[in-house]
Structures are given as C-alpha cells and as structure tokens.
C-alpha cells in the first residue's frame, strides 16, 4: 500500500503541474495496457486532485475519456494489424491474462459489439477488449462509439468516488473489492456456461 500511495502521489503531482494533458497521458497509458497502476487506483486519485480544485471535476472526466479512447485505439490498431499471432504471443508472455482473453473472446462471439461496451466495466477484461476488437476487424466507428460509452461510465464512477470520498481511501478500496468479487463471479459463470455448452454440443454431435 505504501508503494501505491507513493506512486499515486507522484501521479497527482504530475497532474497538478501539467493539468489535463497529464490526465489524458496517464489514462491513455493505462488503457493501452501499459504496465502501471490499474484505473481502480489512478482514476480515484484524479478525482481527489479535482476535489482540490487543481483541475475541474468535469474537465477531469472529459480528459480521462479522451485519454481512454487514445489508449484503446492504440490497442485496437495493434490487434487489427497484429491479428491472432499477437494474441497468442501475449498469452505465452503473460500467462495471467490468458483467462481474461478467453472470456473476452466468448463474450465477443456471443454479444459482438456490445461486448466492447460492457467489458469496459469489468476489471482485467476492460483493456484487452481493444486488441480482440481489432483482431476481429470490428469497424473502427463502431469500436469508438461503444468504447466511448463504456469508458465514460467507468471513468465517471471512479473519478466521482475519488472526488467525493477520496479522503476515505479504505472505503473506496472496499467498494472496488466488492465490485471485483461481483465481476469475478460473472466471469466465472460465463466460463462455466461456455464449457457446459461446448461439452453438450460435442455429446449431441456424436
């Protein structure tokens, strides 16, 4: 937790000094799967900075959406031009994300463009959906539209948490932990359902 606080304070210092450009850059890096703190930490601290009137509340949300779209488009283009070989390399290099990518694939097969929206609201899957969408050659306009809606909802919720209750970080942690548990249950249900349907299909086809 000390590391998180130290890094978060550094990010807040950068936002204080640079302003909205820093918010755009930080959120773009996070949405581009850059190895840094997750949005569950970054965005509430941006909300805290807004509460200190270094930047405005709505300005923080708007600039974070712009950053999220930039980062998402970078990953979309990587998937678009990298294709499935890129996905396979990611699974090998980062084994921990294999499950998340498989869940995203299942959701994408079932819900199509809507998966771009609601996976934005689920930890772990929310950034990798951009690469999957690019790999499947989803139209860029459709990708931007559904991404923007999901990013707007996610960013607004977390920035608002930081803005209004940033003084009670333990409470924010509690909320996000409960939400993560809920999201994990949903992911588990999706995986179990997919496995069950696959086995049932194999049995019926024999």
TrEMBL record:
**Where in this chain does the entry annotate a coiled-coil region?**
none
Where is this gene product found? Cell membrane
Q: What is its main location?
A: membrane
Give the UniProt keywords, A-Z.
Cell membrane, Membrane, Transmembrane, Transmembrane helix
| Domain VTT: start-end pairs | 38-163
User: Which ranges does the record mark as transmembrane?
Assistant: 18-37, 57-81, 143-166, 178-196
UniProt cross-references to PANTHER family, sorted A to Z: ALKALINE PHOSPHATASE LIKE PROTEIN, UNDECAPRENYL PHOSPHATE TRANSPORTER A
The record's family statement is: Belongs to the DedA family.
Name recorded for this polypeptide? DedA family protein
Where does this protein come from, organism-wise?
Answer: Clostridium aciditolerans
Classification of source organism: Bacteria, Bacillati, Bacillota, Clostridia, Eubacteriales
């Amino acid at each position: 937790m000390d590391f998180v606080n130290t890094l978060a304070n550094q990010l807040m210092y950068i936002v204080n000094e640079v302003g909205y450009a820093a918010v755009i850059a930080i959120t773009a890096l996070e949405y581009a799967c850059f190895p840094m703190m997750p949005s569950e930490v970054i965005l509430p601290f941006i909300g805290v900075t807004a509460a200190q009137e270094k930047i405005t509340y709505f300005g923080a949300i708007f600039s974070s959406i712009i950053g999220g779209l930039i980062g998402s488009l970078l990953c979309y283009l990587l998937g678009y031009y990298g294709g499935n070989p890129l996905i396979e390399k990611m699974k090998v290099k980062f084994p921990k994300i294999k499950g998340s990518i498989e869940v995203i694939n299942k959701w994408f097969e079932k819900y199509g463009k809507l998966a771009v929206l609601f996976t934005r609201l689920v930890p772990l899957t929310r950034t990798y959906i951009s690469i999957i969408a690019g790999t499947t050659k989803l139209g860029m306009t459709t990708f931007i539209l559904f991404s923007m809606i999901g990013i707007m909802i996610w960013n607004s919720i977390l920035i608002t948490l930081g803005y209004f209750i940033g003084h009670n970080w333990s409470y924010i942690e509690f909320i996000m932990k409960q939400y993560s548990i809920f999201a994990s249950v949903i992911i588990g249900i999706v995986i179990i359902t997919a496995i069950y349907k696959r086995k049932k299909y194999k049995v019926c086809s024999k």
